[in-house]
Design brief:
The complex is a heterodimer. By secondary structure, chain A is an alpha/beta fold. Chain A has nine helices and seven strands. The longest helix of chain A is centred in the first third of the chain and has 27 residues. The N and C termini of chain A lie far apart (55 Å). By secondary structure, chain B is an alpha+beta fold. Chain B has one domain: Glutaredoxin. The two termini of chain B are 27 Å apart. The chains are: A alpha/beta, B alpha+beta.
Chain lengths: 216, 199
C-alpha cells in the first residue's frame, strides 16, 4: 500500500517538468520545481521526496476516504422536504424530525429503522415503505454532532439535514405542529392519506398505523 | 359505572385542555413558583409592570441555550419599559438531570441572570399555558389585575444565529403594546426541545 502511493511521486519527479495535472499542483509550486535545479545533490532530492511522500500519505488518505463514500448526511432544501412529503404512488413515506439533543427522538429511532428495514423492499401485495430521518440540529453541529452520530448508529434509513425550520415551514409540514420534537409525518401512497404525530412513537403503534397505508 | 364515566370525562377534559393551552387574548393563570434565589415568584409580584415576558426554558436544550444571551438582553432592554422576563423551567429533572433546581441555580449564577428563573416542579403551569417546548414564549399584557396573552411563540426568526435574525417577533409585539396597538403577529412557531413530562 505504501509503495503504490509512493510510485507516482517517483515518476513525476523523474520527469520533473511536465507537471500539468492539477493534482500535482503542490509539486510544481514547491519542492519539485526546484527538483531540476538541485539535481547535483541527490541526498537533498531524497529528502524532498521523503517530505513529499509524507505529505501525500497524510493528505491523500482522507481525500480517498471521502471520495469512496456517499455523503453521510445530505443537506436538503425546503423544496426537497416538500417533495418528500408529497403522496407517491409507489411508496409510503415516513418523515421523522429529530435532533441529536433530543433524547426521545434517539430512543424511538430504532423502531423507525426496523420498520424501514422490514418494508424497504416490497413484500407481496405491499407498497415499499421508506423512512427518512430529518435532522433539525443547528448547521454548526453537522460535522461535530450529526455526522458522528449517524456514523455510529449505522442506520438503514437515510438521514438528511434541514436545520431549524422557520415558523412558516413548521406550519407547512403540519398546521398542528407546535415545533417540539420528535415529530413524524406519514404519507400514504393515496391522496389524502396523511398522519402527523408530535410525540415519541413505539414500533407496534407505528406498524399498526402504517399497515393501513401499506395494505389498502 | 357512574364514577367510571365521571373519571373518563375528566380525563378527556384534562387531555383536551392540556392540548389546547392558551390562545392570544386568554387570561393567563397566576403562579407561585420557587426562584433560584429561594423566594417564591408570582405574576402578582409584577404589579408595577405593564406586562410580563414568560419564557419556558431550561438548562439542557441547545435551542434554549442559543437564546440565553438574547433573553438576557431582552430583559435588560424591556424591564425598564415595563416588560420584565420571567423564565420558567418546566422539565422533569428525572429525564434531564441537567434541568434540576440545583443546576438552575448554578446556571443563573454563571450567566448572571438579571430575571427570575423559577421551577415549575408540578408542570401545572406549563400545562395550563400550553407550553410544548423550550424555548416557548408567552408575552402577557396587564389589563387591570389580569394578565392577558398578547403573543405566543418564538423570540425571533433565527434560533441558530442572532446575527441572521430578520424578524424580532417579541420586540415588535411589545413595541405595538407600548404604542397602545394590537401586535400584527401574535403567533409564531419554532422548533425546540419537547418538554419532558413526568410519567
Amino acid at each position: 500500500m505504501v509503495q503504490t502511493k509512493l510510485q507516482p511521486i517517483r515518476t513525476r519527479s523523474k520527469n520533473c517538468f511536465p507537471q500539468t495535472r492539477p493534482t500535482a499542483a503542490f509539486l510544481r509550486s514547491s519542492a519539485a520545481g526546484r527538483g531540476g535545479r538541485v539535481r547535483l545533490f541527490p541526498c537533498m532530492q531524497a529528502l524532498i521526496l521523503g517530505a513529499l511522500s509524507v505529505y501525500v500519505l497524510l493528505c491523500a488518505k482522507p481525500l480517498a476516504a471521502q471520495a469512496s463514500k456517499r455523503p453521510v448526511v445530505e443537506i436538503i432544501t425546503f423544496e426537497r422536504l416538500q417533495a418528500l412529503m408529497k403522496p407517491n404512488a409507489d411508496t409510503v413515506r415516513i418523515i421523522n424530525f429529530w435532533a441529536t439533543s433530543c433524547l426521545p427522538c434517539i430512543e424511538e429511532m430504532p423502531a423507525f429503522d426496523r420498520l424501514h428495514r422490514e418494508y424497504a423492499t416490497a413484500k407481496a401485495g405491499a407498497k415499499p415503505l421508506q423512512v427518512v430521518f430529518v435532522s433539525l440540529d443547528f448547521k454548526r453541529d453537522i460535522a461535530k454532532k450529526v455526522i458522528p452520530f449517524v456514523q455510529k448508529r449505522n442506520l438503514a434509513a437515510p438521514v438528511v439535514f434541514f436545520g431549524p425550520p422557520k415558523s412558516a415551514e413548521i406550519d407547512a409540514v403540519d398546521s398542528s405542529w407546535s415545533g417540539s420534537m420528535p415529530a413524524t409525518v406519514i404519507i400514504g401512497a393515496k391522496f389524502g392519506q396523511r398522519a402527523f404525530y408530535e410525540k415519541k412513537m413505539a414500533y407496534d403503534e407505528l406498524k399498526d398505523f402504517v399497515k393501513t397505508y401499506l395494505f389498502p | 359505572m357512574k364514577t367510571f364515566l365521571v373519571v373518563a370525562l375528566f380525563c378527556v377534559a384534562s387531555v383536551l385542555s392540556a392540548a389546547d393551552g392558551y390562545k392570544v387574548g386568554d387570561v393567563a393563570q397566576d403562579f407561585r413558583l420557587k426562584n433560584v434565589d429561594g423566594k417564591m415568584v408570582s405574576l402578582a409580584n409584577y404589579s408595577d409592570a405593564q406586562g410580563v415576558i414568560v419564557v419556558f426554558t431550561c438548562n439542557h436544550c441547545p435551542y434554549a441555550k442559543a437564546y440565553e444571551s438574547r433573553i438576557i438582553a431582552l430583559h435588560k432592554t424591556f424591564a425598564a419599559k415595563g416588560y420584565p422576563v420571567v423564565a420558567i423551567n418546566p422539565n422533569d429533572p428525572v429525564a434531564y438531570p441537567e434541568d434540576s433546581f440545583d443546576n438552575m441555580v448554578k446556571r443563573a449564577k454563571e450567566k448572571s441572570y438579571p430575571f427570575a428563573y423559577i421551577f415549575d416542579e408540578t408542570q401545572e403551569i406549563a400545562k395550563a399555558y400550553g407550553a410544548t417546548r423550550t424555548p416557548h414564549i408567552f408575552l402577557l399584557k396587564k389589563n387591570t389585575n389580569k394578565h392577558e396573552v398578547a403573543y405566543i411563540g418564538a423570540l425571533d426568526d433565527n434560533s441558530e444565529s442572532a446575527d441572521a435574525v430578520k424578524e424580532k417577533y417579541v420586540e415588535t409585539a411589545i413595541a405595538a403594546l407600548i404604542a397602545g396597538k394590537t401586535p400584527a403577529v401574535t403567533m409564531t412557531k419554532a422548533v425546540g426541545c419537547g418538554i419532558k413530562w413526568k410519567k
